[in-house]
Write a structure and sequence with these properties.
The protein is elongated, with a radius of gyration of 18 Å. It has helices at residues 35-54, 63-92, 96-111, and strands at 8-9, 14-15, 18-19, 26-27. The chain contains three helices and four strands; from the N terminus they run ββββααα.
Length: 114
């Protein structure tokens, strides 16, 4: 039986009075172990956005607050999501160019002390 791990990155993290956090926003492949940390970071980012407007008496469910959260969290998560998926593709591909690339990267890591 083959097990297929799927990574997901939501197109939108926020909508009208609604925000996605954790695996609902970004489900990472476990190869780099970033999923849990990104979930915590998303929660922290959203909490800071909410706190910043509560002290000013602004509605924390406003589209501006949620769009700020979405923008900040996307900036952090999307590059890492793409990089992680690239690593997975490189190390699960058995075609000759991928094998050569892996050996080259591993050789450079040894030369430069990881």
């Amino acid at each position: 039986m083959n097990v297929i791990l799927i990574a997901v990155h939501a197109d939108k993290f926020a909508s009208l009075r609604f925000a996605l956090i954790g695996d609902a926003a970004v489900g990472m492949h476990p190869v780099t172990a970033h999923g849990f940390n990104l979930g915590l970071r998303g929660q922290d980012t959203l909490a800071k956005e909410i706190k910043s407007v509560l002290v000013r008496g602004i509605n924390f469910g406003s589209s501006t607050v949620l769009e700020n959260y979405q923008s900040k969290h996307r900036r952090v998560t999307y590059p890492l999501y793409l990089a992680t998926n690239g690593i997975v593709r490189l190390y699960t591909n058995e075609l000759l160019p991928a094998r050569i690339m892996r050996k080259t990267i591993q050789g450079l890591a040894i030369i430069f002390g990881q």
